[in-house]
Amino acid sequence: MKSALCAALFCISLSHAHAATPDGRQKLVLIAGKPSHPPGMHEFRAGTMLLEKCLKDVPGLLVERHEMGWVSDEATFADADAVVIYADGGGKHPAVVDGHLETLRGLMAKGVGFGCMHYGVEVVPDEAGREFLEWLGGHYENSYSCNPIWDANYTRLPLHPVTRGVQPFTTNDEWYIHMRFRPAFGHGIETAKDGATVFAPILVATPPDATRDGPYVYPKGPYPHIQAEKGAAETTMWTVERPDGGRGFGFTGGHFHANWGNDNVRKVVLNALLWVTKVEVPANGLESSVSPEELKQNLDPKPAPKPKSAALTTPRIFQRIAG
User: Fold this and answer.
1) What is residue 145's three-state secondary structure?
2) In sequence order, what E strands does the chain have?
3) How many CA atoms lie within 13 A of 35 on its CB side?
């Protein structure tokens, strides 16, 4: 498969300004991670299926969805305009294992868009921190960032294609805070440039003091450097425009599957998926609907949560129950 990918990429211009699909559409490769966490959490398969359903009638867009953490054949990347991963991250991030980082390097070099959602924004710095700072502008770093579950109140939204039609909203989710952004982007709450790379915060909210005091999901904290910034705003979703022509975004929400039923959460992510693939975002954002019945469909078969007393002996991925 690697050789097939290389041969396919060789035949495509490095500029990769537009899709090379037979019918000329822009192509989004949407990757769902392996099952993890208790029911209703990290439902990567069901979540990507809902997003795919909402995108199916967008003119000029082809969505190719894959499961279990990677594509079935890397040759599919040859005409991709964007790759978005919604999966568990950290040391087993799909972008890092099995030589995938090298594959992504080739794609990024020709201007393919890249996005990561929820736990997928976390990488081990020594494994892929440099790449994620380059491709996404930032990432979650264990014990530098933290992962509390809190009610984020997004009262003001910037002028950006990703926010078109999105109204101020509040949701309870595992919204990560204190992300590791490029030094030029500071704390990530203002539009900034680093050379030719343009960074834009999309969702910004101020955690309550009690949120900074913890507990965080894992490790529980609190961390003094997080507590020291009480009253400060935090960016939980952002975009970058890269000098290679590619675009990127990070979205830290998406822990609770039920939140895909929130029209504004869904719209800001759908808009981001269009934008990162270089498909024009409608003036009022992408309209969609998800019913309560649809939210219950395609969920991973998962065991019931273990009693709290047993959690102390479980592996880290299950200790970090909200990821």
Assistant:
1) strand
2) 26-32, 61-66, 82-86, 113-117, 138-139, 150-154, 169-173, 180-181, 192-194, 197-205, 234-241, 247-251
3) 10
pLDDT tens-place string over residues 259-312 = 999 999 999 999 999 999 999 999 999 999 999 999 999 999 987 766 665 443
Please report, for residues 48, 175, 186, the alpha-carbon distance to residue 269 in angstroms, rounded to integers and kept in the order given. Answer: 11, 14, 24
Sign, CA torsion 198/202/208/213? negative
Q: Domain 2-319, what fold?
A: Rossmann fold (3.40.50)
Residue with tokens 């991250």: 89
- Residue 181 CA to residue 241 CA, distance in Å, equals 14
Domain ranges of the chain: 2-319
φ and ψ of 154, to 5 deg: -95, 95
pLDDT profile of the chain (323 residues), mean per 10: 40 44 92 95 98 97 96 95 97 95 96 98 97 98 97 97 98 98 96 97 98 95 97 98 97 98 98 98 98 96 69 38 51
